Amino acid sequence: MSDPEEPDKPETPDEPQHSDAPQEDGPGHEAPRWMRFLERGTTVMLLGGLGSLVLSFLTLGVLPLGELSDEVKKDTPSSYRPMNQLEQTGFTVYKREGCAYCHSNFVRSTTSDVRRFGAPAEAWEYQDQYPQQWGTRRVGPDLSRESGMRTDAWQYAHLYDPRSTVPQSVMPPYPWLFQKKADGELVPTQEARGLVAYLNFLGRAMRESGPQTKTGSDAVNGVMSHEGH
Ligand code: HEC
C-alpha cells in the first residue's frame, strides 16, 4: 500500500531540492536568503571567530590533556603510591593554611634549583594533588622534596613555633594545629599529623625511583657532572 501523495516533499533524488535555488548565476536570479546571510561580512567574521575559538580549545586544551594523561601513565614509577587518608587530610590543611603563599612545591630543571632541592618536578608526581600547590613565591624553601629531610618531632616543633627550631625564621606559627592538655603537654591534632604525613609524602616516590623522564635525568646528571670537576 502506498501513502497518499505528498506533493510538497520531493521523493526522488533527481528532483530539484530547492526549486527556488538559482541554477546558474544569470542575471535576474537572486541568491537564496541563507546564502546571502552566509556571505555577509559580519557572519563571516562571527563564524571565523567561533571557528578559531573552537579549534584553539581543541588543540590547546583537549589535545594536551590527553597527551599529559598518557605521559603520566607511562612515567609513573612502580614505587609511587597515591596519598593515603592521613596525607589527604594534610594536603587539605596545606591548602587551607596557604602554605603555598610562601613555599613552592615544584623544582625547576635549572642548575640552581636541582643543586638546592634535587631532581626536577615531573608530571606524574602531582597526579593526586589537585589543585596543585606549585606556588609562585619562595619566602621559604621549596617543599616538594621535603620527605625524609627532618624528623617528625622537628616538623611538629617547627609548625607550633618555627622560631623554636630556626631562630631567624619568618614563618608564622600554627598553634591551632595543637591541643594543650591539662598538664601543659602539647599534642598534635589529626590535622597536624596529616600535615606532617603530607610533608613526608612530598618527593618520596622521586627519592625512591629517581627521575623517570629524560629531561629530569639530564638535569640531574648535568648538575652532578658539573660538580665532579
Ligand atoms: C610567611 C611565609 C610562610 C608561610 C605562610 C609558611 N612558611 Fe614554611 N617557611 C617559611 C620560611 C621563611 C622558612 C625557612 C625558615 C624556617 O625553616 O623556618 C620555612 C620553612 C619551612 C619548612 C622547613 C623546610 C626545611 O626542611 O628546611 C617547612 C617544612 C615548612 N616551612 C612548612 C610550612 C607549612 C606546612 C606551612 C603551612 C602550614 C608553611 N610552611 C607556611 C615561610 C613560610
Automatic annotation (TrEMBL):
Q: Which domain of life is it from?
A: Bacteria
Its keywords, alphabetically, are: Heme, Iron, Membrane, Metal-binding, Transmembrane, Transmembrane helix
Query: Which portions of the chain have biased composition (kind: Basic and acidic residues)?
Result: 7-18
What are the boundaries of the region Disordered? 1-31, 208-229
Q: Which Pfam families match?
A: FixO (PF02433)
Signal sequence, start to end = none
Which residue ranges traverse the bilayer? 44-65
Task: Tell me which residues make up the Cytochrome c domain.
Answer: 85-203
Q: What is this protein called?
A: Cbb3-type cytochrome c oxidase subunit II
Species of the source: Streptomyces caeni
